[in-house]
Amino acid sequence: MEKSNHFLTLKDICFSYNGTNKILTNINISIERTELIGIIGPNGSGKTTLLNVISGILKPDVGDIFLQNKNINHLSIEKIAKLISVVPQNNWVTFNFKAGEVVFMGRMPYISRIKGEKPEDYQISREAMRKTHSLSLSDKNIQQISGGERQRVFLAKALAQTPELLLLDEFTSHLDLKYKYEMLNLLKHILKKEKLTIISTFHDLNLASIASDRLLLLNKGKVEKIGNPVDVLTEKNIYKVYKVKPILINHPEFNVPQVIM
Amino acid sequence: MNKSFTHNSGYAHWKKKAMLIILAGTLVTLLSGIICLNFGAVSIRPGEIISLLLNSNNYDKTKSLIIWQLRAPRIILGILTGAALSMVGGVFQGILRNPLADPYILGVSAGAALGACIGIAFQYITGYAFASYLPLFAFLGAMLSLYLVYRSSKISFSANSTGLLLSGVAITFLFSALITVLLAFSRRELHSMVFWLMGDLSAANWQKINIITLPVIFGSILLYFSSLDLNALALGEEEALHLGVNTGKLRIRIFLIGSIIIATIVSFTGLIGFVGLIIPHIARLLVGPDHRIMLPIASFLGGIFLIFCDVLARILVSPTEIPIGAITAIVGVPIFIYLLRRNRQ
């Protein structure tokens, strides 16, 4: 098997739920360490499916995923959980756990079911809460805190997993403007400090443009374009994928394209 | 450095808490058992009971027999049954991510009851005494219902929780209908069939306890080791997978062990309702949802709740007995409605 020098490589990934209806077709991408990749595309273009294939919970029909030269398809989900963590879109918790308990669940892949946890597991959880400014939420019930607070708690949980790769599924979709930008800044800060690599799906093109180093535009399960926001968010690309004629302006502060209707 | 989570009440001290619960739970259960020994058709003074417990050769033979061969096994059977129902109810609610799940929701108990009723019917048709094989019939029935539930949910819903719940409800209806058909054909045997459907601890003896104890205790310990995985599952199926929990295997393990426990219990006690639904909720209200703490509390509460319900069943219209399943429902339903209202607020 050939080796690649990239942090994460997807080779010829195809995925379908029942063998006939292809959700993802021939995905080939390489991602470097400490990049923030934004996946964009219309509803049903396969954004979340791609994320689930990378996280290993969906197995591709063909193709391989190499994370630091390890083939994800050959790893057990316990091993994958130590390398990749996910902040889900839906963060409802069935029973009313304390926020601190939810963060601690990030240590699950490291805890022996018989011996129990070590003191360092608590330290790491606490540290993760400190980084995401959620330490004060520790004793609050997860069902009673706001959507923005819950998203911070789930980010802390994902960090407590001490992953190499962090996946986020439309982490801003339930948040209002203030929390959106708060989370964005937090994420950028953590990325730099922890040398994490982040892949996130975005519904909001403008936010994706500001947040990401590179954008991956999906169209019906195929890679339409991958590259810098300036190269991906063009009138031609957006019209081809979204079927609307956009007006593009330049963000005065971040110097990236912004899409207005 | 170890004081990290000190202000965070639950998780960090779970070992101490669990030990405390087991110690206190054992003591309270023992005490409740001794209190319950006092109730029955024949009145025996508490003082006499204490001396009978300490020295069984003392006093008169009849009273000794009542305490040791009738009341004590019944109480122990009640404790084991209540604990097992609550334990399995708790883990089923966790694995299905549904607070309304109980040990019966997957049709396991209906299957066991149908198996037992078929056993009873065979006994009357063939004339052979199957009585000691009834648990086997019940067990086979439980396994059959489990298989059907799993298969039918797999076809339509790829074995997710909703699919399991729906097919569990469907199989329960089907099996209850089959039991009704059997009842329609039966005459003399009607009474022993009703036994399975209403639940009853009165047939307790030491031999039954010997058979039940091992699967209940051993099974509960095995279930308990999945506590952390069940905690993770509260975040959702996909989240649990992301945390390295093999949810497919976990589901099969929980359902199999839970069903074996319930099948064993049901075949000796019949269908005792509401314990397995309500007690885990009360436990969660008391100590929070962490399964490592909640499950032991639920087990002890369940055992204690059931033996007190059984006392009510024995003394309310003494010397006639009310089936215990009726008492647990009468006591349980108001608590259940209260919890539902509370949840909505």
Order of helical and strand elements of chain A: EEEHEEHEHHHEHEHEEHHEE
Give me the count of strands of chain B.
Answer: 0
Q: Assign the structural class of chain B, choosing from mainly alpha, mainly beta, alpha/beta, alpha+beta, or little secondary structure.
A: mainly alpha
CATH fold-level assignment of chain B: ABC transporter involved in vitamin B12 uptake, BtuC
Instruction: Give me the Rg of chain A, rounded.
Output: 19 Å
Write the layout of secondary structure elements.
The complex is a heterodimer of chains A (261) and B (345).
Chain A: E1 8-16, E2 22-31, E3 36-40, H1 47-54, E4 62-67, E5 70-71, H2 77-83, E6 84-87, H3 99-104, H4 119-131, H5 147-160, E7 165-169, H6 177-194, E8 197-201, H7 205-211, E9 214-219, E10 222-227, H8 229-232, H9 235-242, E11 247-250, E12 257-260
Parallel strand pairs in A: 3-8, 3-9, 6-7, 7-8
Antiparallel strand pairs in A: 1-2, 1-4, 4-5, 9-10, 11-12
Helix pairs in contact in A: 4-5
Chain B: H1 9-12, H2 14-36, H3 46-54, H4 61-96, H5 108-126, H6 134-157, H7 161-185, H8 190-198, H9 206-224, H10 227-233, H11 237-242, H12 247-269, H13 275-287, H14 291-315, H15 324-344
Helix pairs in contact in B: 2-14, 4-9, 4-12, 4-13, 4-14, 5-6, 5-7, 5-8, 5-12, 6-7, 6-12, 9-12, 13-14, 13-15, 14-15
